[in-house]
Design goal:
alpha+beta, four-stranded antiparallel β-sheet, Dna Ligase, domain 1, 3 domains, Glycoprotein, Type 4 Pilin, 20 strands, Protocatechuate 4,5-dioxygenase, Chain B, nine-stranded mixed β-sheet, 496 residues, 17 helices
Length: 496
């Protein structure tokens, strides 16, 4: 009996060990570079020098880059650097150090025949430029085996991800990676799964070359149509003919996500191997395309999350109506047309932080709001309109005489997110001028500036110093890494 019991314990222990090892099989495994020395240099110094030269060349063909827009995604090629590196280096036009902490990288399956997606069973990727750890969100995808299967390290010979990584390391510095090899995929569910892990600190990158082995003129013609389909967010144009792109499925997933979130593509560069280092009789096409979204508000659940200009104007009228009624003013039909006192639009019944700002001749006359969504947008605008007009401690109550001169602005806030930083220099690097509203907290001291304040204080050092003084802290308190900093984005509407 004792022997039987001992045997059972041993078997149980072995079973637990096996279970643990299976669960954490990737914990100490690093995916080593496979293409170093062929697609790109294997030595770090040589690789860095090559990327620097390609980057300087790309800077000479710089096109128009949208201002006041948040970079959301990139398409980059994955051929050997002597062929596609010039085009890939155009990513330098929109990337900067520490811009993103997480990168989702999708590339096509060239070798295995994967259904949906596969994630390498590793803890990190290694390149000649260093180690890239996998992000914790990778585990969330691994728990969806119908969409994301495990790819053993020894079977991961896919170059479409590896070749892009050194460029990202050179331009972004440190980041964590979610690497996905994509086969024939169910686009909608795949896009939804990625949408759940997208945020303002995430860059989505698709690795894809365009047409393969056509003569130069045919390739240019084919690639022009493919690029047009991407720029128009039109998946039908990409599947209408064969040989559009080897990364077709990742591109279709990106187009789906971009369409849902109203991202706008911008062509950074196009070339083919006939322009760089190959024969013009059999060329491969390459493009780098950036996707930008409205950075005044995180649209990860668009299209329904973002307020339209028409909806914004209704809220502005609501604020004016609310203040006017408090003053006993009879408003005109155009001023009071807010669908009476209760909105039929369900968007107004959702919860967001709101601010109401009053100005007279462009000078502040009152500003009150709430950072957290304590009430519906409709009720928040009404209560903050009253508080901004009559209860801002910095000003006397608004008078009926001033009312006609008052300009009203409504701000709708995204959820504040903590911003981690090492020191003052790192904080300045991570803040986005004219984009981020900022909250600081230390003990009982706290204060916020809306993104609009950047107009008066455009230098980050000045912005942060004034914010610290507003909170009752020393002007240089922002240099203290113990300071709690949160950022948020704003959609704002002014009276027409």
């Amino acid at each position: 009996m004792q022997t039987l019991k001992s045997s059972f314990i041993v078997l149980l222990t072995i079973g637990l060990m096996l279970s643990f090892n299976c669960e954490d099989a990737h914990a100490d495994v690093i995916r080593q570079p496979v293409q170093a020395g062929s697609f790109y240099p294997a030595e770090a110094a040589e690789l860095t020098g090559m990327i620097d030269r390609l980057t300087r060349r790309a800077q000479k063909t710089r096109g128009h880059i949208p201002r006041n827009q948040k970079l959301k995604a990139l398409i980059m090629p994955h051929a050997g650097y002597i062929y596609s590196g010039w085009t890939a280096a155009h990513a330098s036009l929109v990337l900067k150090k520490h811009q993103f902490s997480k990168v989702i990288l999708m590339g096509p399956d060239h070798k295995i025949g994967i259904r949906n997606g596969a994630i390498c069973d590793a803890a990190a990727y290694q390149t000649p430029l260093g180690r890239i750890d996998l992000h914790a969100d990778t585990a969330k995808l691994r728990r969806q085996p119908a969409l994301f299967q495990s790819l053993p390290v020894l079977k991961d010979q896919e170059h479409s991800l590896e070749v892009v990584l050194p460029f990202l390391q050179a331009y972004l510095g440190d980041f964590e990676l979610i690497p996905i090899v994509v086969g024939r995929a169910d686009v909608g569910p795949f896009a939804e799964a990625l949408g759940d892990i997208l945020d303002n600190n995430t860059l989505l990158v698709v690795s894809s070359d365009l047409s393969h082995f056509l003569d130069y003129s045919d390739a240019v013609s084919m690639d022009r149509e493919t690029v047009k389909g991407i720029m128009n967010l039109n998946p039908a144009m990409l599947v209408s003919k064969a040989n559009r792109a080897c990364g077709l499925m990742p591109l279709l997933i990106l187009i789906d996500i971009a369409s849902r979130n109203h991202w706008q593509p911008v062509l950074l560069h196009y070339s083919n191997s006939g322009d760089t280092a190959g024969s013009r009789s059999r060329v491969v096409g390459y493009t780098t395309i950036a996707f930008f979204g409205d950075q005044l508000m995180d649209n990860r659940h668009a299209p329904g999350e973002k307020f339209t200009e028409e909806q914004g104007q209704v809220l502005v009228k609501l604020a004016r109506q609310t203040i006017g009624e408090k003053l006993g003013r009879k408003l005109s039909a155009s001023e009071s047309d807010t669908n009476t006192l209760y909105p039929p639009d369900e968007r107004f019944q959702r919860h967001h932080g709101t601010f109401v700002t009053l100005k007279i001749k462009k000078q502040l006359r009152g500003c009150i709001g709430n950072l957290t969504p304590r009430e519906t947008v409709w009720e928040g605008v009404k209560s903050n309109a009253i508080n901004a007009a009559f209860h801002d401690p910095r000003f006397s109550p608004l008078t009926a005489k001033e009312f006609d001169q008052t300009e009203i602005e409504i701000s709708i806030l995204s959820k504040p997110r903590p911003l981690e930083f090492r020191d003052g220099a790192d904080l300045i690097q991570k803040l986005r001028v004219n984009v981020d509203g900022v909250i600081i907290r230390k003990g009982y001291a706290n204060a916020t500036f809306l993104p609009q304040v950047w107009e008066q204080l455009p230098r980050p050092e000045e912005f942060l110093s004034h914010l610290c003084m507003k909170a009752g802290l020393p002007s240089d308190a922002w240099k203290d890494p113990q300071l709690e900093v949160l950022t948020y984005q704003v959609q704002y509407f002014e009276e027409e």
